[in-house]
Amino acid sequence: MATTDGRVPRRRVDARSSVERITAAGRTVLGRGEASLEQIASEAGVGIATLYRHFPNREAIVRAVLEDILDTDLLPLIEGAADSPHTRQALQDIATHLLELITEERGLVPFAGNFADVAVDVLQRFSASLHPLLVRAQQAGEIRADLTAEDIPHFLVMAVAGLALPGATPSLRARFIALLFDSLNPANATPLPPLLAESDDLRASVRNVART
To answer: For the whole model, what pTM was predicted?
Structure first.
């Protein structure tokens, strides 16, 4: 809450500054490879207690770094592709760039034990931004009609899991991104099964076990 003269209380300014410094330090340290919370705190110029106050675990650091990557590096590319006449290629370029960005942060994927869960959750924020591109690609017959914008974060994270690893060269990533996007081609595609709620999936699994 602002003071009567419109100034933001110093405590909040300091907190915001600490979060920004720790996030930037996370990108720097994780870009070097293996990292620890202590190394990130040292790079940010804060004590480990300050880091834990804002980021209680490794997953919180990964979330902040991913959000920074997407906000500063990927979102402008998504916005710039809004008028692209080649929408499928634009989506493919976005996926390729995301892989390049995450690969540059060499320690990011192994830093959190549940990287995939965190990454899908962060990428879901961008589903709305990707939706117009997806619809245009579907209308042009370039992408299967039963794919949804909510599918894309899972699709991208599967690509990251396989390709944002040591030894995955740019040419290898480009080849497999092309293969992955060919799976989205509507020609002769097998219809996607319905996406059920977790509880529905569980009940279906139980029914299948009961029948065996």
So the answer is: 0.75
